[in-house]
Design brief:
Number of domains: 3
Structural class: alpha/beta
Number of strands: 14
Radius of gyration: 22 Å
Largest sheet: 5 strands, parallel
CATH superfamily of the largest domain: P-loop containing nucleotide triphosphate hydrolases
CATH class of the largest domain: Alpha Beta
Strand content: 5-15%
Strand order of the largest sheet: 2-1-3-4-5
């Protein structure tokens, strides 16, 4: 498709990101300038017309949402694409409600960026525009399923087979095994791929907030409801809704969710008007829902409705041949986001391969980013890996997971691993959450759940 180039303004206080994106977009034929502060960006908008603004939410002088508001009011012809490393569902949703064109999480994958730019070109040149595919997946996820092992290839084959169906899918696997990536793949290969893809982590929000985020609400529905708000069910209409950690949904909300699954109808909080939606529901869990059903912690009728198709993901420790492929992919991805391209030395790879990876792919990705930051040259040595990887690689491989066969539950294994990482991080919860690949709120929830001393 032939379309004219765009005038693009990058707004980010990280020079390396600006240089990287400027080079990539310039090579695509676009005219690109960048600003390192919000005020500088607004001054540039006064002087020149820009078709697109790529806007970081965390600017040193002005908040990204404040800048977005000014742009939409005074420069409505400029499409704003939010970029942020915060991975915040609430912030992402608020910017989309403020008419941001789309939201990209850091590290930015160039293929995703080019896709957004192409859709803006289509819109501005009145070419048949595909609806925005809104992906609010965690920033730690990768945009494709990667792996050469037999088990990975089996999962890929199953995805190919089930994507064309409209059946609900329950994706099962340990924390960090790639459940959200699989959901994204199913959506992208399905007939709904041109519709929205909405994802929410059900364990990351309090019960009352989770309900309002899913169903939306009318003005005055409760004390803080100053305006009407669309819920995720409504925003996913015509596309896919992904409910991550579905096992954490409270029983009262499960009953309401069951009605939506059965009838494809719902009401906003505070409304008497029933709305009809057309969505495909994907859900994921690291819990044994059959046990939860027996313990009356999860509704049996909802379980069977959600698991029309059940897909089990193997943990990373059972597909070690995928690890070098994933490591090289993460190194390349980090380089595309502005960090230097580095190679990993055999000794470091040996440590990585001998570690049990209880945090699975998400933990591996965060460890590679850690190593890239701490390595002093263009190679990654074993000493650049975090202490718990160096010290426990062989020990964990030989003992930590073998205890499962002796009767240790997966929950105990998770508890022990979280305790180890917290101790290695000097009880710094923020750093521990990053290494584990979960939000600080999710980590706090697990600390309380397992009564971990901090």
């Amino acid at each position: 498709m032939s379309t004219e180039s765009l005038n693009i303004l990058l707004v980010d206080d990280d020079k390396s990101i600006c240089y990287t994106l400027q080079r990539a977009l310039t090579e695509k034929g676009h005219s690109v300038m960048f600003s390192l502060s919000g005020k500088e960006a607004l001054n540039q908008l006064k002087q020149s017309k820009f078709d697109v603004m790529l806007l970081d939410l965390m600017m040193p002088d002005m908040g990204g949402t404040e800048i977005l508001g000014v742009v939409k009011k005074n420069y409505p012809h400029t499409e704003v694409v939010i970029i942020s490393g915060m991975g915040s569902m609430r912030t992402a949703l608020s910017t989309l409600n403020m008419d941001a064109f789309d939201f990209l999480s850091k590290p930015i994958h160039l293929s995703s960026l080019f896709n957004v730019i192409e859709r803006i070109q289509q819109k501005q040149h009145n070419i048949s525009l595909e609806p925005t595919s809104i992906s609010l997946l965690p920033s730690s996820s990768v945009p494709e399923l990667i792996g050469k092992s037999q088990s990975s290839q089996k999962v890929i084959a199953i995805i190919e087979k089930i994507s064309s169906s409209n059946s609900n899918v329950l994706i099962r696997g340990e924390t960090g095994a790639g459940k959200e990536v699989v959901a994204h793949c199913i959506h992208n290969k399905s007939p709904r791929r041109n519709g929205p893809m909405i994802a929410i982590n059900c364990s990351a929000l309090p019960d009352t907030l989770l309900e309002s985020e899913l169903f939306g609400y009318e003005k005055g529905a409760f004390t803080d409801a100053a305006n009407q708000k669309k819920g995720l069910l409504e925003m996913a209409n015509g596309g896919t809704l992904f409910l991550d950690e579905i096992g954490e949904v409270p029983l009262a909300l499960q009953a309401k969710l069951l009605r939506v699954v059965e009838t494809k109808r719902f009401r906003r909080l505070g409304s008497t008007k029933e709305q009809i939606i057309d969505i495909r529901l994907l859900s994921a869990t690291n819990r044994n829902l059959e046990t939860a059903v027996k313990l009356k912690q999860f509704r049996e009728d909802l379980f069977y409705r959600l698991s029309v198709i059940s897909l089990q993901l193997p943990p990373l420790r059972e597909r070690k041949e995928d690890i070098p492929v994933l490591v090289n992919h993460f190194l390349k991805t980090l380089a595309e986001s502005g960090k230097p391209l580095k190679k990993i030395l055999p000794k470091a790879m040996e440590k990585i391969l001998s570690y049990a990876w209880p945090g699975n792919i998400r933990e591996l990705q965060n460890i590679i980013e850690h190593a890239v930051v701490f390595s002093d040259n263009d190679t990654i040595h074993a000493d650049d890996l975090p202490g718990h990887i160096q010290q426990r690689a062989v020990m964990d491989q030989e003992s930590s997971f073998s205890t499962d066969a002796k009767g240790q539950s997966l929950e105990n294994m998770e508890k022990n691993h979280i305790e180890k990482v917290i101790q290695d991080c000097g009880k710094n919860r923020s750093q521990a959450a990053k290494i584990l690949g979960i939000s600080e709120r999710a980590l706090y929830y697990k600390i309380r759940k397992y009564k971990i001393p901090t």
